[in-house]
Specification:
single chain, 195 residues, mainly alpha, Globin-like, 2 strands, 58% helix
């Protein structure tokens, strides 16, 4: 994926708003998730394992969303699925996978997670793609998506025939990484000083 061709992909853009979540907050979230040096190593294994399968992963995830009207709803215009919107988000979703596996979890990464958070919330939903759609992705689905984004990845890890130890380690790290980003994306839904 050529990042310059992806509409709205703004990783590292200096005009992005700084995340209200501090690096210390991020460190404590990772500690709470039992993040270790082994997880840093597993991210590299996951990158080697998953990056060339991103389109297949997105096909599965989009098939899941597309088969559930209550999820497609968040990509509708006048009650109909907006295919341009779905396509634009898909491209950025692919980059999220790549970024999750290859970028350092530093201030730049944290700032972009905040941008993603705002794009799910009424603060900024629809603005990046200049579409008329529903104004917010409801909080309950932000949290609920942790499971399908996690459980579906195991089959893609298995395609590379890792050892059982590496399979379990990569799967656990993926689960932690997805949970971490979903938590960060939920910031916009929480009352001030309660996150």
């Amino acid at each position: 994926m050529e990042t310059k061709e992806i509409k709205g992909y703004a990783y590292g853009d200096p005009t992005l708003e700084r995340s209200p979540i501090s690096m210390e907050d991020l460190k404590l979230l990772k500690k709470t998730l039992l993040w270790s040096e082994e997880d840093d190593h597993n991210l590299k294994l996951l990158a080697d394992t998953l990056i060339d399968q991103i389109d297949d992963i997105l096909d599965l995830w989009y098939g899941y969303v597309g088969s559930n009207d209550h999820l497609v709803y968040y990509f509708t215009t006048n009650g109909q699925p907006n295919t341009d919107y779905l396509s634009a988000v898909r491209e950025r979703f692919g980059m999220w996978i790549k970024d999750l596996l290859t970028r350092p979890y530093d201030q730049t990464w944290l700032d972009y997670q905040y941008e993603i958070a705002k794009r799910h919330h009424s603060i900024k939903k629809n603005k990046t793609d200049d579409v008329q759609s529903v104004p917010i992705v409801n909080f309950r689905y932000m949290v609920a998506f942790i499971y399908p984004l996690t459980v579906t990845i195991k089959q893609f890890i298995q395609k590379k025939n890792p050892s059982e130890k590496d399979l379990n380690g990569m799967y656990d790290t993926w689960f932690k990484a997805v949970t971490l980003t979903e938590i960060l994306w939920c910031y916009t839904y929480v009352n001030k000083n309660e996150f």
